[in-house]
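Open question from group meeting: does this chain pack into something compact, or does most of it stay loose? Before anyone orders reagents, we agreed to write out a predicted structure and look at it together. Recording both the input and the output here so the notebook holds the full record.
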Amino acid sequence: MPITDFLERNAKNWPDDVALVEVNPDREGRKTSNWAEFNLVETDPETAYRRELTWEDFDRRANRFAHLLLTAGCKKGDKIAILLMNCLEWLPIYFGILKAGCLAVPLNYRYTADEIEYCLDLSDASMLVFGMEFIERVESKLDKLPKIRKFYYVGNHTPLFADSYYQMISYCSSRKPPMELTDDDEAAIYFSSGTTGFPKAILHKHRSLTQSCQVEQAHHGQTRKDCFLCMPPLYHTGAKMHWFGSLISGSRAVLLRGISPEWILKTVHKEQCTIVWLLVPWAQDILDAIDRGDVKLEDYKLDQWRLMHIGAQPVPPVLIQRWLKVFPHHQYDTNYGLSESIGPGCVHLGVENVHKVGAIGIPGYGWEVKVVDPNFQEVPQGQVGELAVKGPGVMECYYKDPEATSAVKRGPWLLTGDMAEVDADGFIWLVDRAKDVIITGGENLYPVQIEDFLRQNDKIKDVAVIGRPHPRLGEIAAAVIELKPGVECTQKEIEDFCLDLPRYKRPREIIFDKVPRNPTGKIEKPKLRAKYNGASIVAQQVGLENG
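Structure tokens returned:
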């Protein structure tokens, strides 16, 4: 079944139940509203503190936008791009695109104007829906976007080159559009995160989206009593596909436009959230704020919070050990996935396997996995190879890039680019990205292993290990270390701490600097390599304060 069927079911069965809530921390004290169906601009989306939407209005708005697209001449298979910050409009627009038989093309809100131009051209998008934050970037490229026939603006004070989304949908029918959809219809183009190069366009069919709903619900058991707190960007598969568990269960979700520890805990308290998906830095920030006394747990009602899960990156075991000491009643899960495998869930730890924290886990619901050598032969248990996955959520292809597609697909199998090994109990341990492996003097170093060790140091907030050229060894490991705020540390302290590592795994250089991460929490190692692999770097030996 196409994923739009779940939305229509929810609208029929629970029309008046709240489906989505948007909370804007920086607008606290301003007005709130139930976003009523026939008062489309009742609440200014640029000033409201809190807005909510029922399942019936969610479905009606999706239908309205679908009719708008069809009236504007869109045909089945057309590509419609979305360039919005997280907001209450985002998901009805996404589902409206699908209901029209078109493909949704979500764009990273951090893209530069040049990247926006590149992705719109690559995806063959014919229309663009965008928000106030992107007016200048879009306007600067108007003469270089010949494929874009229509621009729809979500907000007040519509620029002259665009049409108002609110006004245009107000003229459209809220009935289901006359479009037949199947699992085999193309549904969306997502872009890779770009941590290993320029983004590639990833094509998925409806079956991939439906699979992600089923996987998420099977792993975390959402019921109609749950409330999911969503903070990561909706353009990325991770956040949206975790929300798909709420879609299949008909439960409420909260879009929080802020990631401070205080606002996360306050929103869990006020909205009575039961499931929270965090990125590693956010979980670290919460624990650090609790340790410093900046937030006090007794100020919040948190006993209904049942599950904390993390994805998008390797999870340091020491972080989860700290978390479960502070929140011993929480279930914990980690979820592994790629945009090429429709986000989370092709591998997951499982809430019952907390004793295996550090592993990414076992095959997810409906998935198969294996670890293979360069000839695609499965390696023996305990040996490192590349992780391959197989299931209904594997992408169709990299759009318009058969060479890149053939490099990662082996029939129904997808090569992930991640190096892994399987332990005696069948659990998969992520070793590193294949492209991040450091070869030093003929030895393979896996940066994640060194990073996990260094994160056990109480002074370290974040760390990234990269390879740097060396005239004799080929490469050496350099640790870029971000200290906790107000903390001082020297190179000698870090070197002494690393004495417990085997000699060949010890970083040869220590660099104190901030560790850049993209919006989905992944370390942007290409940026670090570009920064430090030019001129010779002298490791900083004086204590630095990282604010």
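Observations to bring back to the group:
The first strand starts at residue 18 and ends at 23.
The radius of gyration is 23 Å.
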